[in-house]
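S.,

Sequence below, as promised.
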Amino acid sequence: MSGPWNDFNSAQSNTNVIPKGTLAKVRLTLRPGGFDDASQGWTGGWARRAATGAVYLDAEYTVLEGPFARRKIWSLIGLYSPKGPDWANMGRGMIRGILNSARGVSDKDASPEAQLRRRINGFGDLDGLEFIARIDVGQDTNGDDKNEIRAAVTPDHREYAGLMGAVAPQSPAASFNSLAPQQPAASPQTSQPVSEPGNAGRPSWAQ
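The prediction came back faster than expected:
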């Protein structure tokens, strides 16, 4: 006897991973880590320091629309690694892409206005940004597949407009105001402790 309830070889896989390469509109939420270094501009308690000495932003991305709406993805944005500058350079590139995507700026745009839109007053300005992400697949500490976000999609991509919808870019005046000195904000509430990031699925310089 053979049927769909006797033979499950043709059943869909029970994986919970969003396919690699999927483009989706997401909201970035930073989970505060309580580590500051004013000399680097890391203030407000947003950064997190691992036991290895690596420093990063603990990012949570919520898919806002489409078939994977409300799904959450967790990734790290590198700020510093004791093994070299590569992880920090990748992190800065990721933040540049997020700002370009969220604020509707072409990556090729080098105008003064575009440069203003790529500046932030602090990491708190990233918290809550909505942008288009390219979803990737990495591995967790157990070697199982897990979703990650390593790149943002900018207006240069042909699918950006349809996925992002209307974007209201900041005016030059608003950009200047966002960079003006502000009174220190209250530190964000500390999130519940999370385990130190494992080595699997992370670049060797971040381990």
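Residues 86-103 form the longest helix (18 residues).

Coffee later?
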